[in-house]
């Protein structure tokens, strides 16, 4: 053996080991420096009075750490009018409403010029708890300032008589959730977890909103003419008695979803809809939902739209849903149809669903049409349009004792003068099942297929299944259906104007 080679190998190993030790020491020193800086700058508090005093101290950023659990008393919240971070010290620390003092207000109010951050990397867990009190306010009210929720912060167990159980975001305010948890809160009206009012803004990049409930709408998040952007995190296990188990948006609201998960939420009332998301445009409103990524799954609705419910419910209203990516899967709807997506126009409203990408799969309409998508005009003057230029609608089912319609897509006009229109220029509809129209069912409506593929009986594993009309079934004076695959070169144009041969 070459001894020089052995010495060289030994030296190389020694150098590598030394560099590893130095790197580890450097990381340790950096962590130690962070800890030292944290404990040198933090202001320790142990009572409600000390917390209020420290929060109202000198101007400029501040850092407050709880040394123990605190019972909130008195009649006023802690007012935040400067940049401030609050965290727990040495484990789990709780701020809880006092039962003896019958304190029913918000624990914190963030005014204009104020910025409150809950949670710190060097701190412990901080819990804001509503206690055994029926309150008339949220845990945190953002009234012109900004709130940031980070890992290690928990907002829980608030029972509110109004809207917004956990966080209330008023006009001109900002709420950013990068981590932490909002759970177990109750709103007697809307917004069990978070309520975003007109002019407020909420951005979610991480954390969890789960197990909250609203007696009316928006079990997880409610936005009325405010902005909500979801880039990450999870909204799960929330419930609303009426609409929007996970998220409810109305007014001139804009909801944008590029990531994250909305799952396991429910809108339980038979007249409600949108187990995952509800977009509800009222008179004169233009309410929009844009989905480019993320997942909406395993949600349920007593009525329409197990995954997503989109409706213009008043005269002059406009509701829109644009899907360019992401997945809507394994959701279920009850009486109204649309296991994955329900889109409808009522009164003289206009509703549009544009699909240019993404996947709608594995959803079910348990007592209605449209296992994947239900497109409806339910009044004499409402107009509903579904445009599909790409994407996949697959593995959905429509099941009903009275006859199931449209496993993939059901286009249904129940009004005497309204219109429901489906235009398909590309994309794929396959592997769906229903009694009539395994792929697509059309009744008193217009369907134009300019491209894309709707699989029929010969599509192998992609075949749509039905008693009649494997690929498509239409009712417009005369029943028309197609069992064979309708590929890119097969046009099923203007069903309402004449239909096609079987």
Task: Looking at this protein, list some descriptive labels.
single chain; 502 residues; mainly beta; 27-stranded parallel β-sheet; 15-stranded mixed β-sheet; elongated; disordered N terminus
Note the gap between the termini: 83 Å
Overall pLDDT metric: 88
- Which strand-content bin applies to the residues? 35-45%
Q: List unreliable stretches of 5+ residues.
A: 3-25, 496-502
Please provide the count of β strands.
52
The proportion of residues forming helix, as a percent range, comes to under 10%
Kindly describe this structure.
It is a single chain. The protein is mostly beta strands and 502 residues long. The chain has two domains: 29-237; 270-502. It has a 27-stranded parallel sheet that branches. The protein has a 15-stranded mixed sheet with strand order 4-7-11-15-19-23-27-31-35-39-42-45-48-51-52. A hairpin with a 1-residue loop joins strand 51 and strand 52 (478-482). The longest helix has 39 residues, at 3-41. It is elongated. The relative contact order is 0.05. Mean pLDDT is 88; it is low at 3-25 and 496-502.
């Amino acid at each position: 053996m070459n001894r020089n080679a052995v010495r060289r190998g030994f030296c190389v190993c020694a150098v590598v080991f030394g560099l590893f030790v130095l790197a580890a020491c450097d990381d340790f020193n950096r962590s130690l420096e962070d800890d030292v800086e944290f404990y040198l700058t933090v202001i320790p508090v142990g009572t409600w009075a000390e917390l209020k005093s420290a929060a109202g101290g000198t101007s400029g950023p501040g850092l407050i750490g709880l040394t123990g659990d605190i019972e909130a008393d008195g009649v006023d919240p802690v007012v935040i009018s400067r940049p401030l971070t609050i965290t727990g010290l040495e484990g789990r620390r709780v701020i809880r409403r006092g039962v003896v003092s019958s304190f029913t207000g918000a624990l914190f109010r963030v005014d204009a010029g104020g910025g409150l951050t809950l949670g710190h990397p060097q701190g412990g867990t901080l819990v804001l708890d509503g206690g055994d009190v029926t309150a008339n306010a949220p845990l945190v009210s953002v009234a012109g300032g900004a709130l940031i929720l980070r890992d290690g912060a928990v907002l829980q167990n608030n029972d509110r008589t109004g809207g917004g159980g956990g966080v209330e975001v008023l006009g001109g305010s900002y709420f950013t959730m990068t981590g932490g948890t909002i759970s177990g809160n109750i709103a007697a009206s809307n917004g069990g977890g978070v309520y975003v009012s007109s002019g407020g803004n909420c951005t979610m990049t991480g954390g969890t909103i789960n197990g909250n409930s609203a007696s009316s709408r928006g079990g997880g998040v409610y936005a009325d003419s405010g902005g909500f952007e979801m880039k990450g995190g999870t909204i799960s296990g929330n419930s609303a008695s009426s609409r929007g188990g996970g998220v409810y948006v109305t007014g001139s609201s804009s909801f944008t979803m590029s990531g994250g998960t909305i799952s396991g939420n429910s809108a339980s009332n038979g007249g409600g809809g949108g187990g995952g998301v509800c977009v509800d445009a009222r008179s004169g409103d233009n309410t929009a939902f844009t989905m480019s990524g993320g997942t909406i799954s395993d949600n349920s609705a007593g009525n329409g739209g197990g995954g997503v419910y989109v409706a213009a419910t008043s005269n002059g209203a406009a509701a829109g849903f644009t899907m360019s990516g992401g997945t809507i899967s394994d959701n279920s709807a009850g009486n109204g149809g649309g296991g994955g997506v329900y889109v409808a126009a009522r009164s003289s409203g206009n509703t549009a669903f544009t699909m240019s990408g993404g996947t709608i799969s594995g959803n079910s309409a348990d007592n209605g049409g449209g296992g994947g998508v239900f497109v409806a005009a339910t009044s004499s003057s409402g107009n509903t349009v579904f445009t599909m230029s790409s994407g996949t609608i697959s593995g959905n089912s429509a099941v009903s004792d009275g006859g199931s319609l449209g496993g993939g897509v059901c286009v249904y006009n129940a009004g005497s003068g309204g219109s429901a229109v489906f235009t398909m220029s590309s994309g794929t509809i396959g592997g769906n099942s229903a009694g009539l129209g395994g792929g697509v069912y059309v009744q008193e409506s217009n369907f134009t297929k300019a491209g894309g593929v709707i699989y029929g009986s010969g599509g192998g594993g992609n075949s749509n299944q039905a008693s009649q009309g494997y690929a498509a079934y239409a009712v417009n004076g005369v029943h028309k259906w197609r069992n064979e695959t309708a590929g890119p070169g097969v046009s099923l144009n203007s069903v309402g104007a004449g239909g096609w041969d079987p």
